[in-house]
Specification:
The complex is a heterodimer.
Chain A lengths: L3 E12 L2 E13 L4 E5 L6 H9 L6 E10 L2 E2 L5 H7 L4 E4 L3 H4 L6 H12 L4 H15 L15 H12 L6 E5 L7 H18 L2 E6 L2 H7 L2 E6 L2 E7 H6 L4 H8 L39 H5 L5 E4 L2 E3 L12
Parallel strand pairs in A: 3-8, 3-9, 6-7, 7-8
Antiparallel strand pairs in A: 1-2, 1-4, 4-5, 9-10, 10-12, 11-12
Chain B lengths: L3 E13 L4 H6 L5 E13 L3 E5 L6 H8 L7 E6 L6 H13 L5 H10 L2 E2 L5 H7 L3 E4 L13 H11 L6 H14 L5 H5 L8 H13 L5 E5 L7 H18 L2 E6 L2 H7 L2 E6 L2 E7 H6 L4 H9 L39 H5 L5 E2 L5 E2 L6 H4 L1
Helix pairs in contact in B: 3-4, 6-7, 6-9, 7-9
The chains are: A alpha/beta, B alpha/beta.
Chain lengths: 323, 368
């Protein structure tokens, strides 16, 4: 059994205008030590999907259906102390914008000690010793544990966030846009660190980003989300070398490639649909160059095009003997 | 060959560091944050010149100093747009000469070449000139006032500059700017508020605000970095179209080398307040000469997992611009640093007609 099995997950938000279906029936599995990228435009539900796994939804958000099976427990049903015991000990998260996720008036060391003391019966000295080890692991001088967040640069604060996420030796780490606010050079440092930690500690990871090139560098698996649904999912190499869904093709084409030919990348015209009144049929139909009448009437199922490669489009057919 | 629209020579923007009371008693020397420390480049008419660098390298400050949104502390910025008349140049040069802001040679040179020294203009003259030199800002989510309608946002430059004879004329100009920025039909957008349109459309509103005064020169500060990748190239294409249609010239500021690669004609790589390499885009990206440029290019993530390239990951982070290292400012992080790099600052060395690099590795002198 996989470490994480998400099946038909639906996460909705109650808003004044109606129910917003941010995540509308997504499924994926993640094994121990695997890294999966979750890509899509802003508002496609990728962050909501990841927060649902940890049940860190805002007050108006709720899981409306599906199951989230983590190491044999259905996360969508457990609450209270049981949930608190799993959060951070087994699943942790590196939040978007590390700059602002740390408490500015607490020493960074104390902020990392906190979850260790909450989850494990150890005294502060032991916990502090672990923080020093963690700092070393993420490449910060261990003598800096008594400093405050403002004394760290952006890249260093992101390293503190990573150390904090690893404090209780979790099995699954969710990284929400881990490098979005950082410079390319720092981004490269952080991505390398994440990759090294992942293989050293056999971590399972979900990396959320709108930047396909970041995911291409870090993940084995890749899921492409559009308007609350996964439209394509396979290994990263497969998705890049043999994209099936028109949206995936569009996204890949939208990236300028510094190693490639010098030309302006294509863009995807239009905007994603409103998820309060989501269109029937294929949600991408509005913006799709291939769309026919069928697409506006019927929702395409996620079909297995090749072993382990799924896509949801009326115009993809299972391929055999292609590999 | 197209003539230069803008000539920036040894531009400096130093911010004095404020001292505490005790420090002011003990040390006499005033220290500075040298955000821009001797930057020189030209931009030709209808050219897209791109400044690339990490945050804090001074690229934005350079852009602002050219528009005098911050005051340069040294160097010169000379502008020769179609909107600059010989009479304006003469008047400005003579005024600067009489106030002893400029040497006689400089004044004569400006008059002969028809270039305006931006640094020596009075505030009023600068304000008038800024109609021809506009800026597009980075964040379309924060640079637009949420309480103003799109009409008010785009019309504001007209109001500030007292342009447009009446309300109907203003509305016509706003509609034209929106149309130019691709918000069509303009009537559908004019009376809406920023939160009612998408991110890409917001950035178009920002561009319309810059276009409404019909400028010749635009400083675009990271105009696409806050946008989703899927709509970035739409905005870039719009900017290219505007260059064709209106003959615009751009200074494009970005940290994203891959965007610079597809969009710009020439590129300048900035590090810690100075340009370390400058040349035609294709030449710099495909044949970088400075170790910093090489490292920057190597770490750009490639949108293809099959492409495994060797990365040159520099250790540490950029040093503090208030303590710029002596010699070559890059030497503490440079994998190839030699003895000379610590002592002497390299001067630009041309590796081809238009491509220069500031690095001792390129110099015969250092190799001996």
């Amino acid at each position: 059994m996989a470490l994480l099995e998400v099946d038909g997950l639906k996460t909705y938000f109650k808003t004044q205008e109606g129910t917003l279906k941010a995540v509308d029936g997504i499924s994926f599995n993640l094994e121990k030590g695997q890294a999966m990228g979750l890509a899509g435009e802003s508002g496609c539900g990728k962050t909501t999907a990841a927060l649902s796994v940890m049940k860190l939804l805002p007050a108006n958000g709720y899981i409306a259906g599906g199951t989230i099976n983590f190491a044999g427990q259905d996360m969508s049903r457990i609450t209270g102390d049981k949930l608190r015991a799993i959060r951070w000990r087994d699943i942790s998260i590196i939040f978007q914008g590390a700059m602002n996720a740390l408490n500015p008036v607490k020493r960074v060391g104390d902020q990392i000690v906190e979850p260790i003391l909450l989850h494990e019966k150890v005294d502060e000295a032991v916990a502090l010793k672990r923080v020093k080890e963690l700092f070393e692991m993420v490449g910060i001088n261990p003598n800096r544990i008594r400093e405050y967040p403002h004394e760290f640069s952006g890249g260093m604060r992101q390293r503190v966030m990573i150390a904090m996420a690893l404090a209780c030796r979790p099995k699954l780490v969710i990284c929400d846009e881990p490098t979005t606010a950082l410079d390319v050079m720092i981004q490269a440092q952080i991505l390398q660190l994440l990759k090294n930690l992942q293989s050293e500690l056999e971590l399972a990871m979900i990396i959320i980003s709108h930047d396909l090139s970041v995911l291409a560098e870090t993940c084995e698996l890749l899921s492409i989300m559009y308007a609350g649904k996964i439209v394509e999912r396979s290994s990263a190499v497969e998705v890049f070398s043999n994209p099936q869904h028109p949206y995936t093709k569009g996204l890949i084409a939208a990236f300028p490639n510094i190693k490639g030919e010098r030309r302006m990348p294509a863009s995807i015209a239009g905007n994603p649909p409103n998820l309060i009144h989501a269109p029937v049929g294929c949600r991408f139909a509005e913006r799709c160059y291939m769309a026919k009448d069928l697409c506006k009437e019927q929702e395409p199922p996620l079909v297995e095009v090749l072993p382990g490669h799924f896509a949801a489009c009326h115009f993809v057919r299972p391929q055999r003997g292609v590999i | 060959m197209a003539r230069n629209l803008l000539e920036v020579d040894n531009l400096q923007v130093w911010f004095p560091v404020r001292k505490g009371f005790v420090e002011s008693l003990t040390s006499k020397e005033q220290s500075f944050v040298k955000a821009v420390d001797g930057v020189s480049f030209n931009i030709k008419e209808r050219e897209i010149f791109c400044l690339v660098g990490e945050s804090g390298c001074g690229k934005t400050t350079t852009g602002k100093a050219i528009l005098r949104l911050v005051d340069p502390t040294g160097g010169s910025v000379r502008y020769a747009g179609a909107g600059v008349s010989a009479a304006m140049v003469k008047e400005a040069a003579e005024r600067a000469l009489s106030k002893k802001l400029m040497s006689k040679e400089e004044a004569e040179k400006n008059i002969a070449e028809g270039t305006l020294e931006i640094r020596k203009l009075t505030r009023d003259k600068m304000k008038a000139l800024r109609q021809k030199m506009q800026m597009i800002f980075q964040d379309p989510y924060e640079s637009l006032n949420p309480k103003q309608s799109i009409y008010d946002i785009v019309a504001e430059p007209l109001v500030v500059n007292n342009l447009g004879v009446n309300e109907a004329d203003r509305e016509k100009r706003v509609a034209k700017a929106l149309d130019d920025a691709g918000l069509r039909p303009p009537k559908d957008f004019m009376w809406r508020y920023p939160h009612e349109v998408s991110g890409g459309q917001r950035q178009r509103v920002g561009i319309a605000g810059a276009l409404v005064l019909e400028p010749e020169f635009l400083v675009a500060d990271e105009p696409v970095s806050m946008l989703d990748v899927s709509i970035r190239s739409e905005i870039l294409k719009l900017m290219l179209d505007l260059r064709e249609k209106k003959g615009l010239t751009y200074l494009f500021i970005t940290h994203d080398l891959s965007v610079a690669y597809v969009f710009s004609d020439r590129i300048g790589i900035m590090y810690l307040g100075a340009i370390v390499e400058l040349g035609p885009t294709e030449e710099v990206i495909k044949g970088p000469r400075h170790p910093y440029t090489k490292a920057l290019i190597s770490v750009v993530p490639k949108p293809d997992p099959r492409m495994k390239t060797e990365k040159i990951i520099l250790k540490g982070e950029r040093p503090d611009p208030s303590h710029i290292p002596p010699g070559c400012r890059f030497h503490p992080r440079c994998p190839f640093a030699m003895a000379i790099c610590k002592d002497k600052e390299p001067t630009p060395m041309y590796v081809s007609q238009e491509h220069w690099v500031s690095c001792w590795l390129e110099s015969g002198e250092a190799k001996q």
